[in-house]
Every structure is written in C-alpha cells, then in structure tokens.
C-alpha cells in the first residue's frame, strides 16, 4: 500500500475519494460530493477530465491492492495445502479448537493434515472479491473501519455519475449558445457560373468536406449562396465536415480568387450564416499567424480546377 500513496500527485485524489466515502453524510450523496470537489478543483485550474481521471486512478489503485491481497491470501492457503499434502507442516497448538474441530486435537498426524487441507480449501472457496475487505488503518492515513471491494465499485459508479453530470451540462451550454439559423439565407456573389460552382461542390463532397446529399438540396443551396442561378425555396443550411480553420481557408481563397470587384474584401457573414459557424475571420487570422490548416492543399487543387 505504500507504493499507492507515493503514486499520488499534487492533488491527493485518494484522500478525496476516501473523505467522501468515509463520511456517513456524503456517502449517501456521493455523486454530489464529487461534483463539488470537481468544481473546487476547477478553481485550482484542474480540468474536469483531469479530476475525473485522478479519482478513477485512486479507485483503481485500491482495487489492485484488493486483487493482490486476495491472491496473496489464496497463495498462502495453497502453500499450506501443499505442505500438508507432503506431511511437511507443523500444525500449531489450538488450531483445530479455533475452527471448532476440537476432536481433531487427538487424531493422528495424517488425519490432522487431511482436515487442515479441507479447511484451507473451504477458505479458498469462500474468498470472494466482491465481499473482500481490508481495514482502512492499513493506509496509514488516519481512517478507521473497513472498506470492501464492493464499496470501491459504488465509488466508481458515483464518479461515473459525476462525469455524466458535467457532460450533460456541457451539452446544455452548447445548446443554449447555438445560434438559430437566420430566416433569410445570405448571398455572396462571386464571378463564377452555375457549372463552375457545381464542380467545386462535387469536389468538396468527394473529398469529404461536405456531406453527400442525393436530393441535391445541398447543391442548390451552395449555388444560391454564392450568387448562382438557383431558387432559395426549401433552402437547406450546409454542414461542413472538416475543421473550422479549413472552412475559413476555403471561404477566403474562394472569395479572394473569384471576387466580382477588385477592391472587394472577403465577406464572412454569408459563410457563417450558410454553414452555421461563428468567428471564421478569427480562424483565418489564427492560421495566418501560425500555419495553413491540414487539407489546404486539397482546397487549392479544387479551386485551381475552375
């Protein structure tokens, strides 16, 4: 168990886990306890995933200790069985009285060895990990009482509930911040005809940047937003299947190469509206500052074909 303690990092996850379970009140509301502790850890600049993984690691260390202790106990019983089988064991005084078999005190050595083998095999059969326990004072952390392997499973379940809670919160926040599509789709007229726009669209689909749509409603929407000859009736917003950075690269290169007027700047609002994205200009500034996004060469090739 000493190695378990040494493996703890700056935040003592083992103590967090045991503090929650050893307290009778927090034990009844263990998931709520871990949620509070995760929020406290966030204030110390620990991420939710880091906290959850740390608590899982503490439980895993405990469970490994139970596995190892149980196996060691079984091995000791098997050693006793082997020694008794070889008639090479010294049976301690009072052994049979302690296990309510006083009549074997006066039996022959062979009979005593056979009975000891039977007792040890019964012990091995009764050793069940789910009911296996260890005294908490073995941790040398000031805790009293016992902790069973089943208890560690309950702790793991509470940690999983905590993780689910934060995942659902994240989904709720994203849903709350999702921009509703504008009622009227925006257009950005570029110097390309329907046939050229169709080539671009089909190449984007074939390279996995846009989702294939057998009804061609995506194609019609693509042509419409770029000022082509297409009806906006039943307009469908498009889903970009790659990174925001690559979408910004595509929009910037498409518009700068095919803009209708020489002094016209790239317009981002139509693209954000069409693809239901935000801050594409910021994504463009990021790759300008560092490096072109992965897939930029494919975009260049697509646009060179028109």
User: From N to C, what is the helix and strand string?
Assistant: HHHHHHHEEHHHHHHH
Radius of gyration: 34 Å
- Percentage of helical residues? 55-70%
Strand content: under 5%
Low-confidence stretches: 1-9, 260-264
The outline comes out as elongated
Per DSSP, the total helix count is: 14
- Cα distance, first to last residue? 69 Å
Spatial order of the strands in the main sheet? 1-2
Described by strand count, sense and barrel closure, the largest sheet is: 2 strands, antiparallel
Mean pLDDT: 82
| Number of DSSP E strands | 2
* Total individual domains: 2
Class based on secondary structure composition and strand pairing: mainly alpha
Explain how this protein is built.
By secondary structure, the chain is mainly alpha-helical. The chain folds into 2 domains: 2-175, no CATH class; 194-304, no CATH class. 61% of the residues lie in helices and 2% in strands. It has 14 helices and 2 strands. The chain has helices spanning 2-6, 13-22, 24-28, 30-43, 48-85, 95-98, 109-126, 149-177, 194-206, 217-225, 244-258, 269-275, 280-289, 296-304; strands at residues 133-135, 146-148. A two-stranded antiparallel sheet has the order 1-2. Helix 11 packs across helix 13. The longest helix has 38 residues, at 48-85. The chain is elongated. Mean pLDDT is 82; it is low at 1-9 and 260-264.
């Amino acid at each position: 168990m000493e190695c378990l303690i040494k493996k703890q990092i700056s935040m003592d996850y083992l103590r967090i886990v045991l503090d929650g379970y050893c307290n009778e009140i927090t034990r009844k509301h263990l998931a709520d306890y871990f949620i509070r502790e995760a929020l406290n850890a966030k204030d110390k600049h620990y991420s939710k995933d880091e906290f959850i993984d740390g608590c899982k690691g503490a439980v895993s260390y405990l469970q490994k200790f139970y596995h190892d202790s149980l196996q060691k106990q079984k091995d000791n019983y098997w050693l006793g069985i082997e020694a008794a089988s070889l008639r090479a064991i010294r049976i301690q005084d009072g052994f049979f009285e302690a296990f309510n078999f006083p009549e074997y005190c006066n039996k022959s050595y062979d009979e005593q060895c056979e009975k000891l083998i039977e007792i040890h095999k019964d012990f091995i059969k009764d050793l069940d990990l789910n009911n296996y326990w260890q005294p908490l004072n073995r941790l040398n952390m000031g805790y009293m009482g016992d902790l069973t392997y089943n208890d560690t499973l309950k702790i793991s379940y509470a940690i999983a509930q905590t993780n689910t809670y934060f995942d659902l919160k994240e989904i709720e926040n994203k849903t709350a911040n999702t921009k509703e599509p504008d009622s009227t789709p925006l257009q950005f007229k570029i110097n390309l005809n329907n046939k050229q726009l169709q080539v671009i669209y089909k190449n984007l689909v074939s390279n996995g940047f846009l989702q294939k749509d057998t009804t061609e409603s995506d194609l019609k929407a693509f042509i419409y937003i770029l000022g082509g000859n297409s009806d906006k009736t039943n307009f469908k917003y498009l889903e970009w299947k790659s990174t925001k950075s690559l979408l910004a690269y595509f929009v910037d290169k498409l518009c700068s190469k095919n803009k209708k007027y020489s002094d016209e700047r790239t317009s981002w609002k139509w693209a954000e509206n069409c693809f239901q994205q935000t801050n594409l200009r910021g994504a463009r500034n990021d790759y300008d500052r560092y490096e072109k996004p992965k897939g930029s060469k494919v975009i260049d090739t697509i646009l060179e074909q028109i």
